[in-house]
């Protein structure tokens, strides 16, 4: 069983389209994250959700809208895709603040988004 | 959030020990020191973490300075599979859901 699973693994789409990336974790964690890794390989946090509530929104354009229907899922919807959105997007989960800082986080295998 | 500083790259010969340093001079008393690595074309994976004492697990050892302003990840015998980018990250007890990556150290293992 994969701990953190993302779908799709690859996504190629045209500029202006709207797309979604799904993420699910089966670890019982209360916190989930989205990261963007661009061509320079820097891993930048985009969003963090704790118990379905938004905790971090790192000045991400509002074309990006995360949705957490329950603690096990954090989906990422992107409107009006732009060339600069091309990157690898990683989902992750962990326990949150408090004792959670003393535990490990788990990452998905990534979704490679290419906007043409 | 407290920041970490790591060398951009390091090299090691296969089957030799590797010491990957990390400076975190502004660490707070509630920060845990975590290490993750990212193998090519994969998501980051957990390596080890600690608070004050040195830690060992099946993958590596973590040596934490007495003043906690620096730490060293030790791979006892580097293999080709250990070639990856290694990230040193601080996770605060109070804000454990803020998980920021730095630039990491790209480790090359030479056969």
Describe this structure in words.
- The complex is a heterodimer of chains A (116) and B (111).
- By secondary structure, chain A is mainly β.
- Chain A contains no helices and eleven strands.
- In chain A, 0% of the residues lie in helices and 54% in strands.
- The radius of gyration of chain A is 14 Å and the shape is globular.
- The N and C termini of chain A lie far apart (34 Å).
- The mean pLDDT of chain A is 92.
- Chain B is mainly beta and 111 residues long.
- Chain B is built from no helices and nine strands.
- Chain B is globular.
- At the A-B interface, strand 4, strand 5, strand 9 and strand 10 of A face strand 3, strand 4 and strand 8 of B.
Relative helix content of chain A = under 10%
Order of helices and strands of chain B: EEEEEEEEE
Query: Which word captures the global form of chain B?
Result: globular
Please tally the helical runs of chain B, counting DSSP H or I stretches of 4 or more residues: 0
End-to-end C-alpha gap of chain A: 34 Å
End-to-end Cα distance of chain B? 38 Å
Strand order of the largest sheet of chain B: 1-9-8-3-4
Counting H and I runs of at least 4 residues, what is the number of helices of chain A? 0
**Strand composition percent of chain A:** over 45%
Class computed from helices, strands and strand pairing of chain B: mainly beta
How many strands in all of chain A?
Answer: 11
- What percent of the residues of chain B sit in helical stretches (DSSP H or I)? under 10%
Largest sheet entry of chain B: 5 strands, mixed
Report the portion of residues of chain B in β strands. over 45%
Oligomer: heterodimer
The number of strands of chain B is: 9
By helix and strand content of chain A, what is the structural category? mainly beta
| Main sheet record of chain A | 7 strands, mixed
Kindly report the average pLDDT value of chain A.
92
| Mass-distribution shape of chain A | globular
């Amino acid at each position: 069983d994969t701990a953190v699973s993302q779908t799709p693994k690859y996504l190629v789409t045209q500029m202006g389209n709207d797309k979604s990336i799904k993420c699910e974790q089966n670890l019982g964690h209360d916190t989930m994250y989205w990261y963007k890794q661009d061509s320079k390989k820097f891993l930048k946090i985009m969003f963090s959700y704790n118990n379905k509530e938004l905790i971090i929104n790192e000045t991400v354009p509002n074309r990006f809208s995360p949705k957490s229907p329950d603690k096990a899922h954090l989906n990422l919807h992107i409107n009006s895709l732009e060339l600069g959105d091309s990157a690898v997007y990683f989902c992750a989960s962990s326990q949150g603040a408090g004792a959670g800082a003393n535990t490990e986080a788990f990452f998905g295998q990534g979704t490679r988004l290419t906007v043409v | 959030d407290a920041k970490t500083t790591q060398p951009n790259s390091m090299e090691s010969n296969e089957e030799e020990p590797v010491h990957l340093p990390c400076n975190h001079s502004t660490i707070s008393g509630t920060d845990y020191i975590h290490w993750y690595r990212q193998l090519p074309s994969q998501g980051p994976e957990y390596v080890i973490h600690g608070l004050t004492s040195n830690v060992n697990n099946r993958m590596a050892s973590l040596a934490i300075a007495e003043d906690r302003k620096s730490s060293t990840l030790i791979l006892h015998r580097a293999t080709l599979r250990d070639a990856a980018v290694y990230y040193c990250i601080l996770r605060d007890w109070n804000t454990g859901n803020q998980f920021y990556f730095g630039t990491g150290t790209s480790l090359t293992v030479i056969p």
